[in-house]
Amino acid sequence: MIKKIFRSLSWLVLPLLVEAGWAASGNELHFCLRAEPKTFNPLLVEDDASETVRYLTGGVLVRVNRQTQEDQPELATSWKISDGGRKITFNLRQGIQFSDGTPFSAEDVAFTMQQLLDPNLHSPTGDAFRSGKGTLQTQVLAPSRVSITFPAPVAGMVRLFDQVAIMSSRSPHRKKKWPCSAPSTSASTNPDRTWS
Asked: pTM for this one?
């Protein structure tokens, strides 16, 4: 009787093991979202499924380590807050490209922040950065250095950048409904990244 049950279960379990092994052999990660993302535009994310896609595919300047709650460099190598909490200057990684092959630079950060705080866009992510009346100012200081000045101090400014996936300012896909994937660092460029 036990042998019969074991044989029956092995016919059910064996195909699952074979399928799991086959998927793993391709060096790919497969997972399922419980809902359809409402958007792939990282600036318009407001639902959990879209947030998951943005988190997994978007490159951000600073990543909050979900285990230690520490701010970690991602696309930025360092940053400095000045002007009473109104200004942040980022030094950026070099040699990184977007999924369409366009290079990542300070112009992309400036472009993304200008888009994010465009009042006509109504970005839920951008709302956290709205600190007072006036406009955001971005200044490209060098290809790998950019400063962003807000009209008033922004509380918890560094951590907010964990939610801002940088978009290409030069991509031929940027005017489409779904922009190319943001640049992201990998274990080879950021060995300290914690995947959690």
From this structure: 0.73
